[in-house]
Write a structure and sequence with these properties.
By secondary structure, the chain is α/β, with parallel strands linked by helices. It has 16 helices and 13 strands. The chain binds flavin mononucleotide. Flavin mononucleotide binds next to helix 1, strand 7 and helix 13.
Length: 365
């Protein structure tokens, strides 16, 4: 199957309810403590954050999803309109297709053309890095005047994909070289199985400073690839079934990544579905939240503006109810961490940024 048909299949399957879960984000174990005397005025709330040299209107990124087909051109154009209007950052999907076929460049470039005053993020898979030259990488970044390059680590997806890559050796060195040579920063992201402390330590030591956790609990690429295999009559399904619930839930991944260093920019993503989820990941340790599938769904349904307005109103309500006037204050509000997330943090001895996090089995202070 060629890349274009695969991209289309990914979009169609990602929209189905079966593409989500079955793990949860564990954000249900984060309790923001209600403050009945907030001393905050809704009209004066400041949702802005700095990211990649821009001032965003809200701490939100439309995570990289697509490009490379005519339908993807339209989706990217509509996503970019939302990003530009609400001054939020936006990523494109893997640009491998345009390296193979440069006539597809326009399906990505439309994002920069429409979203000209917000950060735009290039995208490539880690498994492809070995077969690409530095000039290829420079070209994909330049083609959309990107402000950063996201490298996605997706070993679980590749293993479950019929035509997926199987060789993951020697990639840290390539990333280290890119950090040195590329003019824009590198963002390392997962795609829904989460980043661990060990991975981040390795990459932080070679100079990567921005990580998108893309944890489990939202779009599930193991499941999507298994659905594709089943449709194609391949027998990957039985092999892949035990890995459907594989990965680090988003809330745990945020704590894993944040525990490595405070000067890391952490993007909390994977199953972020409401403005309350955005508030929770930020209070837990993220700087910004990333959202993919719900934006895709919203542009296809034609209600992207309503979706983001609801999301922002929910974020505002959450901030009022915890007494936070801006995003910096949201990072330090008291939170209670319970259940499996508390267990995870204690077992892994993770150090949290938020010193007012009360953890059921131990204390950070
Ligand atoms: C249709 C679709 C295509 C995607 N393609 C890419 C991609 O090319 N590169 C990438 O880094 N992530 C890709 N992702 C993963 C998202 O960026 C995100 O990490 C993941 O979907 C988890 O977020 P969510 O639960 O909000 O969907 C894609 C997601 C969707 C829904």
């Amino acid at each position: 199957m060629n890349i274009e048909s695969r991209k289309q299949e990914h979009i169609d399957l990602a929209l189905s309810p079966q593409s989500q879960g079955p793990l949860t984000t564990l954000l249900e174990d984060v309790v923001l403590i209600h403050q009945a005397l907030p001393e905050v005025s809704v009209d004066k709330l400041d949702l802005s954050v700095e990211f990649l040299g821009y001032k965003l209107g809200a701490p939100i990124i439309i995570s990289g999803m697509t490009g490379g087909t005519e339908k993807a051109y339209e989706i990217n154009r509509k996503l970019a309109e939302v990003a530009e209007e609400f001054r939020i950052a936006i990523g494109v999907g893997s640009q491998r297709a345009m390296i193979n076929n440069p006539s597809l460049t326009r399906t990505y470039k439309v994002v920069r053309e429409v979203a000209h005053s917000v950060p735009v993020i290039s995208n490539i898979g880690f498994a492809q890095l070995k077969s690409l030259t530095f000039e290829h990488i420079e070209t994909i970044v330049a083609s959309i005047e990107a402000n950063a390059l996201a490298i996605h680590l997706n070993p679980a997806q590749e293993l479950m994909q019929i035509e997926g890559d199987r060789d993951f050796e020697g990639i840290v060195n390539i990333i280290a070289e890119l950090v040195q040579r590329l003019k824009v920063p590198i963002i390392v992201k997962e795609v829904g199985n989460g980043l661990s402390r060990e991975v981040v330590e390795k990459l932080y030591s070679v100079g990567v400073k921005i990580f998108d956790v893309a944890g489990a609990g939202g779009t599930n690429w193991v499941k999507i690839e298994l659905m594709r295999a089943e449709k194609a009559g391949k027998h990957l399904t039985l092999y892949g079934e035990p890995f459907v619930a594989w990965g680090i839930p988003t809330a745990a991944a945020v704590c894993e990544v944040r525990s490595v260093a405070n000067d890391i920019t952490v993007i909390g993503s994977g199953g972020i579905r409401t403005g309350l989820d955005v508030a929770k990941v930020i209070a837990l340790g993220a700087d910004i939240a990333g959202i993919a599938q719900p934006f895709l769904k919203a542009v296809i349904m034609g209600n992207a503006r309503e979706f983001i307005q609801t999301l922002l109103n929910q974020l505002r309500a959450s901030m009022v109810l915890v007494g936070a006037r801006n995003i910096e204050e949201l990072k330090t509000v008291p939170i209670l961490i319970k259940g499996n997330l508390a267990y995870w943090i204690c077992a892994r001895k993770l150090v949290l940024r938020n010193k007012r996090a009360y953890i059921h089995c131990c204390s950070t202070t």
